[in-house]
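stuck on this chain:
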Amino acid sequence: MRFQTVAAGLSGPGDSHDDAKELHQVMAFNPFEFAQETRTEVTKITWPSRNETILTTVFVIIMVLLAGLFLFLVDQALSRTIQWILSFSA
């Protein structure tokens, strides 16, 4: 947010050297500030409960199995259809 505030206050197009210098100062990397902001953001995370994690995992496994079964059936149907069509040419 600090970038937008300072960038909005930059002078007009006449003094590009000072603008670039000021912009560089705003965008300079501060590891301590980064660590503080990261810690603040991590505290905002809402972690799922153990029950939610297990339920979601079971749901994903079931959906993968259903998708695999569907693709297997479509593959078998297409394979048999192609074999049936090719049997007329032999």
Summary: The two ends are 72 Å apart (CA to CA).
